[in-house]
Write a structure and sequence with these properties.
113 residues, mainly beta, Rieske Iron-sulfur Protein, four-stranded antiparallel beta sheet, three-stranded antiparallel beta sheet, 6% helix, 52% strand, binds FE2/S2 (inorganic) cluster
């Protein structure tokens, strides 16, 4: 039966690569095997979102991070880092998993099993 399952993809072999990317910035766009993700550092936590604002499908690159929110650089819509919610629209959020030194990103995929 066809169902959605969370599949994990290796994002960084070493967590320090991710920490280095966000050492001097609060957000960075990073390309992986399923497209661009926006990596965000907020209040000591790291989040991953699809790099597309749901308002007009523009890139969130150069967004601002303030009080736990991603602020789109185009029209300043704000999205909560924990839920992705804001202005009746949501940005797509990807879970991150830290295992040993490695960092994985999760994406829902259709599966027969
Ligand atoms: S494109 Fe992001 S708020 Fe308009």
């Amino acid at each position: 039966m066809l169902s959605k399952k969370l599949k994990w993809y290796l994002l960084f072999e070493d967590r320090s690569e991710l920490e280095d990317l966000l050492a001097t910035k609060q957000s960075v766009v990073y390309k992986n095997i399923f497209g661009e993700v926006l990596l965000v550092k907020s209040n000591g936590a790291i989040y991953a979102f699809k790099n597309k604002c749901p308002h007009q499908n523009k890139s969130l690159e150069n967004c601002k991070i303030s009080e736990g929110h991603v602020i789109c650089p185009w029209h300043q819509y704000q999205f909560d880092c924990d839920s992705g919610r804001g202005h009746g629209l949501n940005i797509d959020k990807f879970p991150l998993k830290f295992e040993g030194d490695s960092v994985y990103i999760g994406k829902e995929v259709w599966s027969l099993f």
